[in-house]
Amino acid sequence: MTEPIDLRGVAGPAPIWPPASDADTGILASGAASVSPGLPAGGAGDGAPGAAEPLPGESDAAEAAGPEAVGMRDVWRAARARRRALKSEVRRFTVRARRRRAIWLGSIAAVVLVALGSVAAAYSPLFAVETITVAGAQQLDAAAVSDALSSQLGTPLPLVDESAIKAALVAFPLVESYTVEARPPHDLVVRVVERTPIGVIASPAGYTLVDAAGVALSTTQTPAPGRPVLQVTGGTASEAFAAVGHVLRSLPDTIMSQVTEASATTPNDVTLTLGGTGTQIVWGNTDESSNKAVALAAAMTSRPPDTVSRYDVSSPSAVVIQ
Fold this sequence. Notes:
Blueprint: H1 22-25, H2 58-65, H3 72-93, H4 95-122, E1 131-135, H5 142-148, H6 162-169, E2 175-183, E3 187-194, E4 197-203, E5 206-211, E6 216-220, E7 229-232, H7 239-250, H8 253-256, E8 259-264, E9 270-274, E10 280-284, H9 289-302, E11 310-312, E12 320-321
Parallel strand pairs: 1-3, 7-8, 10-11
Antiparallel strand pairs: 2-3, 4-5, 5-6, 8-9, 9-10, 11-12
């Protein structure tokens, strides 16, 4: 026969709500806390009877608020600090490029200053003309030419008036061309190239000395010594005159000094006459003038003019001596 088992003090299944009265359960000790219907025992779970849980959203708002709210001033201060840091980094990484730029700018400024200083000095009285030298004058009177250019004295070298120099030199027919050279600090050199006279042309006014271009250089009552008399059909503007001028300029000085007359009616029949003997030189046209001059010199050496009445060098490879 089985003995009865006492279940008091042994954990069993949770009580069924609502609980039975003390008399029914027989296990509720006097003084134990009663539990409200529908609420779990222990309340809010923190051991405090009857404590209420926070409403939804209250804990999130408290966390977002933080211990101290951030103001606009703090945002501006942070932005300024960021800009300063960025600028400092940019300067650190571009220091070499800025140094090169500074060197280039300094060099350019130095060059500009030197150039401006040089220009200012050149156009100042420090570089004014004090001396005018005429070079290349043989037939011309250099002193007379220098006096004609005296208006340039006291003028800064870069401001010398070349138009005024040209106007002054036009008065000297012997000047064929010229160049102007400035020699700082105070010298002005004018180099002239004189015209080469080839002979004189007889006219009612006298004997006019002309060059190969037909420019009249001077007029005298008697022929200039050592200059042949030119007898050319058509005057100085003709092709015959140009041919005579070309032939006379191609002659060596030893032969030119013996020529007393040159004549031509066309460019193809230039004829020269040697003074003293009256010997004629038939030149022909201007073709191969240098070869003709060499052939004539050789013929005059082998047969002097006083033994010859005529040299024909119109064909330099076959000289005819009469």
